[in-house]
Design brief:
Purple Acid Phosphatase, chain A, domain 2, five-stranded mixed sheet, alpha/beta, 2 domains
C-alpha cells in the first residue's frame, strides 16, 4: 500500500516584516498571508488524501511566540484529515529544552500531532502508518554540525515498510551557507544513512526545481509563502507518494498568495516605459516590486515618469522604485535649447550627440551641469 505525504517547511509564522518600511496595510497583509498559507496547505493535503502532513522545521519564525498564535496554528493543523501531523524544530523555532514554545505546542496539540523534538526513531504504527521517522531537530539557531550522527550509531532500527528522514539545514553545493553554520549536510552523508527518502527544510527555494521528481533521495520544499525580494518564486510544497515497490514520486504544488519581483530595466525611449507599465499592470495586486530604472527618456516622458510610477503603485500591492540612474535623452534640439549656439558646451555636446555615444554624452552633460552649479 502506498503512503502519501504532504511535505512543507519554513512557514515562519509570526514573522512581522518590520525590517522594511512597508505601509502598515501591506505589512498586515504579508503577516496574515503566512497563516492563510498554512490553512491552504492543509486544504491541499486533504484534497490529495495525504496520510502524513510533515513540517520540516521553522513552522514558527522565533522561539518566543504568543500563546494565542500557537493556539491558532494548532487549530489549523487539527483540520488535517489524514492520520498524523509531524513537526520538526528548525533553526528559527529550535527546541533546546528551556523555552516554552514546544511545551505549549504539546499542551495545545490535537491528538494527531507528533513533535519530533528528540533524536530517536518515531514509529508511526500507532497512527496506522507503516513508517518510521528519523528526525534531525535543531537545538539552537546556528550550528556547524548537523544532527544526523545519532542515526549512524543506532544498533537497531524499528521495523517498518518506510524508513524516512526529516532534517532542517543546508546541503553543501545546493543551499547557500558560506560559513557552514546552518547544520550543514552532505549528499553522500544522507545517502549513507540508507533511508528511503529525506524531507528537508531551511532552504527557501524548492529543490529540485522541477514540477515532478522520481526517485529523489531528498527534497527541499521551499517556503510556501514568499517572504522577500530574495525569494522570487511563487511558494511551493511537495506531495510525495511512496509506492509499495519502493519508488518515490514527488509532485510540486504551488501555494503562495503574493509574489516578490526585483526588476532592473534599461529604458531607451517612451515605448520601453509603456511596455514596462503594461507588464507590471498585468502582474496584478498580489505583487511586490523593487524596481530600478536606468537609461534615457525623452524630456516629456522623463518629466512624466513620477506620475506614471504612481499609477503603477496603485496597481500593485507595493512598489519600491529607484530612478536615480535614469536620465533625460539629450537630443540635438534639447542641447540647442539649453546652451547658446557656438558656446563650448553646445559644440561639445552636439559633437558627442553626432557620434551616437549616449553614455559619453550624459557624462559630459553632468560634468557641465556641475561646473555651472
Amino acid at each position: 500500500m502506498s503512503l502519501k505525504v504532504f511535505h512543507t517547511a519554513d512557514l515562519h509564522l509570526g514573522m512581522t516584516f518590520g525590517s522594511r518600511s512597508y505601509p502598515e496595510e501591506v505589512q498586515r497583509q504579508l503577516v496574515e498571508a503566512r497563516y492563510e498559507a498554512l490553512e491552504r496547505l492543509v486544504e491541499l493535503a486533504n484534497e490529495a488524501q495525504c496520510r502524513l502532513f510533515l513540517v520540516a522545521g521553522d513552522l514558527f519564525h522565533r522561539v518566543q511566540i504568543p500563546r494565542e498564535i500557537i493556539a491558532r496554528v494548532m487549530r489549523s493543523l487539527s483540520r488535517f484529515q489524514g492520520d498524523c501531523v509531524a513537526v520538526l524544530p528548525g533553526n528559527h523555532d529550535y527546541c533546546d529544552g528551556y523555552g516554552s514554545l514546544w511545551k505549549e505546542m504539546r499542551e495545545l496539540a490535537p491528538d494527531s500531532l507528533l513533535l519530533l523534538i528528540d533524536t530517536v526513531p518515531y514509529p508511526l504504527h500507532d497512527y496506522g502508518i507503516d513508517a518510521v521517522l528519523y528526525p534531525a531537530p535543531c537545538h539552537r539557531k546556528h550550528s556547524r554540525d548537523n544532527r544526523l550522527g545519532w542515526i549512524r550509531e543506532l544498533a537497531e532500527r524499528p521495523a517498518a515498510g518506510w524508513q524516512l528522514g526529516v532534517a532542517h539545514g543546508t546541503v553543501r553545493g545546493i543551499s547557500p551557507d558560506p560559513e557552514g553554520e546552518y547544520f550543514p549536510m552532505d549528499e553522500d552523508e544522507l545517502a549513507g544513512l540508507r533511508l528511503h527518502h529525506w524531507f528537508l527544510g531551511h532552504t527557501h527555494v524548492r529543490h529540485p526545481d522541477l514540477e515532478q521528481v522520481q526517485g529523489a533521495l531528498f527534497c527541499f520544499s521551499g517556503t510556501p509563502e514568499p517572504d522577500g525580494f530574495d525569494c522570487r518564486h511563487g511558494g511551493s510544497a511537495w506531495i510525495t507518494t511512496l509506492e509499495e515497490g519502493g519508488d518515490v514520486h514527488c509532485r510540486a504544488v504551488s501555494t503562495g498568495q503574493f509574489r516578490f519581483m526585483e526588476i532592473v530595466r534599461e529604458l531607451r525611449g517612451t515605448a520601453d516605459l509603456d511596455e514596462l507599465q503594461e507588464e507590471l499592470r498585468q502582474a496584478g495586486k498580489g505583487v511586490l516590486v523593487k524596481l530600478r530604472l536606468t537609461g534615457f527618456l525623452p524630456e516629456e516622458a522623463y518629466n512624466a515618469r513620477r506620475r506614471r510610477l504612481d499609477e503603477l503603485r496603485s496597481a500593485l500591492l507595493y512598489l519600491e522604485d529607484d530612478d536615480s540612474a535614469l536620465a533625460v535623452e539629450l537630443s540635438a534640439e534639447l542641447i540647442e535649447s539649453r546652451f547658446p549656439a557656438g558656446s563650448f558646451p553646445q559644440r561639445l555636446l552636439s559633437r558627442l550627440a553626432q557620434k551616437n555615444d549616449p553614455a559619453a554624452l550624459q557624462l559630459a552633460y553632468r560634468l557641465i551641469a556641475e561646473v555651472k552649479r
